[in-house]
Specification:
single chain; about 140 residues; mainly alpha; Arc Repressor Mutant, subunit A; 6 helices; flat
Length: about 140
């Protein structure tokens, strides 16, 4: 349970969650794991560069979406996501539901729902970027 899931469990312990000693163990170790954002850290400038935490190279603009191929590409990218990620993106971005409603419906905390949404959007963007670079959209 590394990454955001371990940290989420650790934060639930700090909020007063009771249970076996293993939860406490996860809480104490979760703070040592490196936080991972939805975009790889190598995409941003380091502290010793002119603009720390700014893009090294901004994402390339996508060509205009035309025809059903672009829509099918987006559907395929959405289908590749894990089930929960797909549900969060579908409910938030397609159905337009409020974040609290989506979190409640999927039995997630607000923080988990926002984290999943950010990661899912980044995964979709990455998949669509790769498709455009490979020329799948044509």
């Amino acid at each position: 349970m590394r990454g955001w899931l371990g940290r989420a469990e650790a934060q639930s312990v700090r909020r007063g969650r009771t249970g076996s000693g293993s939860w406490t163990w996860w809480a104490s170790w979760a703070r040592w794991w490196r936080r991972q954002g939805p975009v790889d850290d190598a995409a941003f400038q380091g502290t010793n560069e002119p603009y720390p935490r700014h893009w090294r190279r901004p994402p390339a603009p996508w060509p205009p979406a035309t025809g059903g191929d672009a829509l099918q590409l987006a559907r395929d990218a959405l289908d590749e996501l894990p089930v929960t990620w797909r549900q969060v993106v579908t409910e938030r971005d397609i159905a337009g539901r409020a974040d609290a409603d989506v979190a409640r419906a999927l039995d997630l905390t607000d923080v988990q729902q926002r984290s999943i949404l950010a990661r899912a959007r980044a995964a979709l963007r990455d998949r669509l970027d790769r498709a455009h670079e490979e020329g799948e959209d044509r």
